[in-house]
Amino acid sequence: MGRRPSRCYRYCKNKPYPKSRYNRGVPDSRLRLYDNGRKKAPCEDFSHTVHLVSKEKEQITAEALEAARVASNKYLVKMCGKEAFHLRVRVHPWHVVRINKMLSCAGADRLQTGMRHAFGKALCKVARVKIDQVLMSVRVKESNVEHASEALRRAKFKFPGRQKVAVSRRFGFTPFTHAQYAQLKAEGQIIPSGVHVQTYGVHGPLSRLPIFQ
Questions:
Q1: Interatomic CA distance for residues 186 and 78, integer angstroms
Q2: pTM for this one?
Q3: pLDDT digits (tens, 9 = 90+) for 145-176
């Protein structure tokens, strides 16, 4: 018996049911890689970001997320090169969905219990997403924004419901807009921190400020 189609598990109906010591025997998620491309590139290298945003409250299976990751990663590698982008899947499939298996062989009616003991066995994992939640993000150089948008448009076809592709106003994966980032950098307030940046607070030694150096 194969997997049930995802349309059976599209809506957020029940309480969250994660894998735990009470919920054992859960199959592993098909989605293993959440970051693709040049994932350790400094924040300065990729200044522009494109997001794939969910416009429905629903559940998305780990298989659909993996299919979307593969499709978008394949297009980006072909059009931009494998070192020219950083693709990140932003949702995690923690919720476990269940199936009450029924026998379909000859003489099954003698063995089946129907709705008696109907609490099913674990089938697969899904991510519960909200309206306007970001599903996937790509950071690239300005010249590759069109390719990133097309890659996420192709990823949309792997998901149920409605999604929008949005070009972010922020600098890379940071919380600052391009203008704010340029101002903070000019003031010497930026602390590089991998794919993100941190900023100096108002407290601390005066020796670290540019005017005292």
A1: 36
A2: 0.89
A3: 999 999 999 999 999 999 999 999 999 999 99
